Amino acid sequence: MVVIFIAKKENFLNFSVPFPEEKSRALALYLEENGESLERCMVESIEQLYRKTVPVGIRKYIEATLRRQNPGPEKPPDEGEAGPEGPTGL
User: Nearest CA to 14 among 46, 61, 56, 37?
Assistant: First the structure.
């Protein structure tokens, strides 16, 4: 089975991940039992990888560009979420 991920934001990101169907069903079942979703966990994982990998200057530039493209109320970071510097301060 291939898991298709679709971000639910202004800009869509679609990608496929090869993953056995039986494992996918079990994962979705247990995540759901714990009030989570596979999509939310994937988004969180991608965000962490993004903050860890992309230099802070580039992240700040991208955030400024996105704010200009989609002006609106600024959402404060979730509790426990690292800011633009990420968990390593980079």
Answer: 46
User: Domain for residue 11, yes or no?
Assistant: yes
DSSP state letter for 87: T
- Say yes or no to pLDDT of 71 above 90: no
Q: Domain range holding 28?
A: 2-69
Structural contact between residues 14 and 4, judged by C-beta atoms closer than 8 angstroms = yes
For the packed helices 21-33 and 38-53, what is the interaxial angle rounded to 10 degrees?
100
pTM of the full structure? 0.60
Q: What is the pLDDT of residues 8-60, one digit of tens each?
A: 555 667 778 899 999 999 999 999 999 999 888 988 998 999 999 999 999 99
Tokens of 26: 């079990």
How many residues appear in the chain? Answer: 90
Domain count, the chain: 1
